[in-house]
Specification:
about 200 residues; two-stranded antiparallel sheet; globular
Length: about 200
């Protein structure tokens, strides 16, 4: 898969989901005081985000989309090949402290130790009975997980073909800390003129 195909089919859909979530923050602000707030809007978000996280973790795990698999298979592959994922920190716009969405994820208890995944399954199989599981904290964590997985996939596919490893439209809500990219986004470039009218470009 090349960069353009990945962006069209996966990253752009992530941006759609992120925008849906950002719209919900007009009604429920993102802070710890509201983490237990649940709603039908969060039911919708948790189902959409959880489903796409399932798709992208399967892709990162090199499992064909047509093959039925469970999160334990993803955990076994991802935690073996990308063990640093559990320490990855995501900075959230408007919050002082970053979060580690995959922290504590365990191969042996994969569905229980990935925050929000059990809630996703509960809501999927009984949205009325389990509506209280569709709370802000779980939606936020699942979206952050999806953001991280998307970045791993972007790096994977662009490295294979030596393509630019930045998206055309980046997240407006998250930033991945200590994440090395081979290319610098244009918005981060600094242009300086010298006495000899030379232009120096730096990040």
């Amino acid at each position: 898969m090349n960069r353009e195909t990945f962006l069209q089919n996966y990253w752009n859909y992530y941006i759609v989901l992120e925008k849906k979530f950002i719209s919900s923050t007009n009604y429920v602000a993102v802070n710890e005081d509201n983490y237990n707030t649940y709603s039908f809007e969060f039911v919708n978000l948790i189902l959409l985000i959880g489903s796409e996280l399932d798709v992208t973790m399967k892709l990162l795990s090199n499992i064909p989309q047509t093959v039925s698999s469970k999160i334990c298979a993803y955990a076994d592959y991802i935690l073996t090949h990308y063990p640093d994922i559990v320490t990855r920190e995501v900075k959230i716009q408007g919050l002082d402290s970053p979060i580690k969405p995959f922290e504590g994820w365990d191969k042996n208890k994969s569905s229980d130790t990935l925050k929000g995944w059990k809630a996703y399954n509960n809501v999927k199989h009984g949205r009325v009975e389990n509506i209280k599981d569709a709370k802000l904290e779980y939606v936020l964590n699942l979206l952050a997980c999806l953001y991280i997985i998307e970045n791993y996939l972007l790096k994977k596919f662009t490295e294979q073909l030596n393509e630019m490893d930045i998206p055309d439209e980046d997240s407006k809500f998250f930033s991945l800390l200590n994440w090395h990219r081979r290319y610098t986004p244009a918005k981060d470039l600094v242009f300086k003129s010298t006495e000899n009218d030379e232009v120096i470009i730096g990040g």
